[in-house]
Amino acid sequence: MSETFKEELAKELGFYDTVKSEGWGAIRSRDAGNMVKRAIEIGQQQLAKKGKNQ
């Protein structure tokens, strides 16, 4: 996952301020899990979209 993508997800999920001020190590494990879950959802959406275009 690129740093930019991780930052975008953190902003979307509402904990970017923590990342910005304290770093990635300061986020809660629940936030990290939600970030992974959202990244998977986005990946699945992109794959589904790609499959429809073929």
Could you characterize what this model shows?
This protein is mainly alpha-helical and 54 residues long. The protein has helices spanning 3-13, 16-22, 29-52. Helix 1 crosses helix 3 (29-52). 6% of the residues are buried. The mean pLDDT is 94.
Give the % helix. Answer: over 70%
- The residue ranges in which pLDDT falls below 50 over 5 or more consecutive positions are none
Estimated radius of gyration = 13 Å
Globular, elongated, flat, extended or rod-shaped: what is the shape?
elongated
Distance between the termini: 26 Å
Characteristics:
0% strand, single chain, mainly alpha, 54 residues, 3 helices
Topology:
Blueprint: H1 3-13, H2 16-22, H3 29-52
Short description:
The protein has helices at 3-13, 16-22, 29-52. With 54 residues, the chain is mainly alpha-helical.
